[in-house]
Amino acid sequence: MSGEGEAQYFSKDFEWEVLKAEVEADPSLQSDSDAWKRFHIRHSSGKFFKERRYLLKEFPELVSCEENSKVLEVGCGNGSTALPILRGNKNVTVYACDCSSETLERAKEIMEASAAAPLKHRFHTFCCDLSINGFPKWLACNPCQEKFLPKQQGCSLDGPQFNDLCSLQEPDRCIGGVDFVTLIFTLSAVSFERMPSSIKECFTVLKPGGLLLFRDYGLYDMTMLRFEPERRVGFRQYMRSDGTRSYFFCLDTARDLFLGAGFIELELVYCCIKSANRRNGKSMQRVWVHGKFQKPFCI
């Protein structure tokens, strides 16, 4: 099904249950930290993070959605998720937030330098730390503003282009908001205690029937096994040397978090992928959690 010259992508190279049994039977698999430290040094320039083109295959709704659809990319980083979405669908507008204003500037630079058709007019950024401040009120659908965000403080916006979201809102009608929220390797960076409120914020800004598209680190992923024991700061949560966090999800935890916020589960699976390191000939077992959740049409 892949196009000519395009790398094939698989999500079931091995069974997660088999990996689980191997890890739990061999504690030594959790002590190799040298390779993880070298990884950070080797990729400190940020060139490692490339476009996530595979997301259009994993989430085809982003390609087939209606004209003028709006996507909220949470924790956009350098735009590695937003850029393939914009390339793949000319009818989509992406609103991207990140807690770092410097990162947002870098994302805009990458967008402007893109060789594709001009994309920057469909890419709008705003600085916001979801886990602490929540989203600005203008992003939520109209009834949800008063129901869920009565004391919400505004975040800094990226110019007047946000008026189109606000102008769509009418009294007593859930017309504002976004059609999709993408949480791609973002929730794992939030402390576990703040995850429920962060997911609830995402629920609030979605239109009824809107989709939340989720992908993040799964339990027993290679990176989890390479953390030193002293880096563990909570249940399945670790602190990197640069102070950032990483949580590793099992399906039950992800399910409880999203259903607890009011979402309907559409898909929730482990993606188990073998990645070969050509330099040292080693095979790496990556585990990600893939999920699609829907906001009910009637709330």
UniProtKB/TrEMBL annotation:
The parts of the chain that form a coiled coil are none
Biological process (GO), any one? methylation
> E.C. number, please?
2.1.1.-
Superkingdom as given in the UniProt entry? Eukaryota
Q: Which InterPro entries match?
A: METTL2/6/8-like, SAM-dependent_MTases_sf
Query: A single Pfam family, by name?
Result: Methyltransf_23
Annotated GO molecular function terms are: RNA methyltransferase activity; S-adenosylmethionine-dependent methyltransferase activity
> Which terms are listed as keywords in the entry?
Methyltransferase, Transferase
Q: What's this protein's function? A: S-adenosyl-L-methionine-dependent methyltransferase.
**Family designation:** Belongs to the methyltransferase superfamily. METL family.
Q: What is this protein called?
A: tRNA N(3)-methylcytidine methyltransferase
Q: Which organism is it from?
A: Quillaja saponaria
